[in-house]
């Protein structure tokens, strides 16, 4: 069994001494809602990011009874590399051979310590959080224009809108354009129908909606 980290540039660090155990933590996220006279209610929100943690050490000298390979990395150089990766924004590839752990992670925390009688050895604890890629899509992609992904939850804007009793330009803009503050766009496009007072719209008027 080998434990290794690799960054996007191909730089790889293999841990020379296998940890005695690996802890993998999975949590479910909840939002707590307080109901009047009903107490608290936990509403599940999804699975949180998974955490993987283990402890080991970088030995200063090779010992075949516990070292996985040689030559060994310099302990302080190895710890400095972990520091650099923790400050980086790029994910790392964590592999543990013989298991299903082969995932992208971010190094979220690590501690180091020295022990008397073991000069040069550096002990450490590391914690990783699994990393999920995300993509910021353009408006064209969201609306499903050529070359973009379709978004079935986004409705195309209607070409016209028939005024209903009780409607206002603000409410029409909110419902059809996503923001009530866009009421003036509707008014300017339909000034000839509405007249000089934007507050006086009449049921059954056919309003042209802005593109």
UniProtKB/TrEMBL annotation:
InterPro entries: Bact_Kbp (IPR052196), LysM (IPR018392), LysM_dom_sf (IPR036779). Gene3D superfamilies: LysM domain. It holds the Pfam family LysM. It comes from the Bacteria. CDD domains: LysM. Residues 159-209 form the LysM domain. SMART domains: LysM. This is LysM peptidoglycan-binding domain-containing protein.
